[in-house]
Structures are given as structure tokens and as C-alpha cells.
């Protein structure tokens, strides 16, 4: 559930009706979609009224559109499974296709939650942003977040002066502190000890957990800029953090449709230069921007070659190929809303791997999308 003020919202309205393995189709623009799987009958759902509308049994595999629009394969999941249909039309079934992971708290000013019946009524007054900055930060990094807030107090959220050509909102994406364990993780038969900041915060976690929870609760009450996900906030859950942020952005920013800047909490931006950069882009940058520092097919890091690189290693089960797909450094990248929404949907059909930047590269490869 999602809490914003005193209201509670369900991020995924079908979570209580369908099991995590179910796939649900929906109605959009008077077109009906269904999922066909060999030897199985799956009920479909009219998303407009949240009621079962049909049951289908077919030998054909795919998501089929009644309106005879152009069909093409997207979101491949395995050699024996494919979805068929337009990605932009699949946006309507995004909540139903979710893995069911929950957000515990969201901002009530930046892309605020609204009731389904209000989704087409326009933005909440004061909530319209041209660019939403999503800062990826560990729950333990209170000092980094406070430094970030102080640095950008003059442009962030409601304090943003109207004279600026682009309004910028800032949110921080965090999980929950780990309850037990230390900085050593078992990774596909290998023990990996996290170095540097990612490992230091986990050294005495059993004793510091109550304090971190209390400080997080105080931060939620004092500021209105946290996205708190229901997962342990560790280095190897960064992919979960990424998916949670993308699902929030695609679901709750659908009315405003801003552009997005993703940043690590030890990086920043120059407000004046950022606005100049945005002003030089085409008029559709809020929808179609895909900008980042791309690594072009670097070699896959394997365990045991060098202890200093084990943090980024992937097993052959996770990444069977000797080279990685093109991907961007996670330190920063820009995405327009239309592109982010496609990625958010495709993530639901892509098996996660623990290195979030590489995983995003895999998702983008499915859509033939590249950073510029």
C-alpha cells in the first residue's frame, strides 16, 4: 500500500485478485486484449471497470488485438513466449502486470497519487513538473540526502521560482534497512564482500537497524520527497530499486508526463547548465529523450578473476554471454516519459540480474533503444 498524508492507495489494484504468476489483459480505446497460452484458459479483465470479461483457450501464443491494428512482437520472455501488440497500448495494463512489490511511501506533491477516476481530470494544482530528478540513494545515506536538499533548495519542488523556464522536482528512492547479516553476500556459490560505502553501512546493521528506522520515519514526516520501497536496501537489490522507481514514475507521473533525470546521491547537476541543455533539445524532449554515457558491449566480469571486481561480477547463469549489452553508467541518465513507460513495461518481462545498469541495458536492447 502507499501512504500519502492520511490516504492509502494500492499501487497494483489486482494484487489481491491474481497471483504473481498471472498475466492480465485489459481494455483500452475500445480494443480488447487477451493472453493466449497453449493448453491454458486465462481470464481477461476490462480495466475500465475491473471486472472479468472473457475466458479464452487457444493454441496460439500472444497478446492479440481485436481491432486488427498492426501487430509485432515485443517484450520477449523466452523462446516459447512472446507478447504481441503495441507497447504504447500496453501501458494501460501496467498495474495488472506488476510483480506486486509495494511502495510504502510516496511524495504527495511530485506526481501525487490520485484516484483512478481522476486520472484524466488533469494535474493536481502545483504538481506539474517539466523534469523530475530521481536520486538513487541508500536508506543509510541521510547526510547525502540532506546535502542534496540544501544544495538545490532554491529550485526544488514548491520553492521553485516561476521565472525559471523549466520546473524541476526532486525525489529520493530508498528501500528499508537490512535487519541482519553483514557485508558478505553469497552470490551463485561465491562469497562476495562488499567494499567501500556499500559494505561499511552493513557492518553493525543488527544494532543500528532501530535507529535507522526511527530516522527514516522522522525524515518522512519532515520532508515530502521520499519514495520508500518494500525491499532491503543493499547493493544487490539495486535492480529492485530501479524497477520500483520506474513503476512509480510510469504509474503516477502519467498525467504530468515529465522528463526524468536519474542520479546517484554522490552526483549533482548545475541548474543553469541543465536548463540550457534542456532548452537546446527538441520540443518533444519530455517524451522522447534518451541521454546517457554509454558503454558499448564491455566484457562480462566473472567471479574469481580479481577480488576487486567481484562486486560487479555476474555468473554464467545470470549472463551467459562474454560481453554485456550496451548500457549507460548509472551515475546519471535522462529519459523522456514515453521511453520510460516502455521500459517500465518491458522490465516486467525481463528476468532481473543484480547489476542494475546492465539490466537496464538488457531491457533497452529488447526495445532496440540506445542512449545518445
Automatic annotation (TrEMBL):
The keyword Membrane applies. The keyword Transmembrane helix applies. It is found in: Golgi apparatus membrane. One of its GO terms (biological process) is protein O-linked glycosylation. Pfam families: Galactosyl_T (PF01762). InterPro entries: Glyco_trans_31. Its EC number is 2.4.1.-. It comes from the Eukaryota. It is a single-pass type II membrane protein. One of its GO terms (cellular component) is Golgi membrane. GO terms for molecular function: hexosyltransferase activity; UDP-glycosyltransferase activity. Keywords: Glycosyltransferase, Golgi apparatus, Membrane, Signal-anchor, Transferase, Transmembrane, Transmembrane helix. Belongs to the glycosyltransferase 31 family. PANTHER family: BETA-1,3-GALACTOSYLTRANSFERASE BRN, BETA-1,3-N-ACETYLGLUCOSAMINYLTRANSFERASE. This is Hexosyltransferase. It comes from Dibothriocephalus latus (Fish tapeworm).
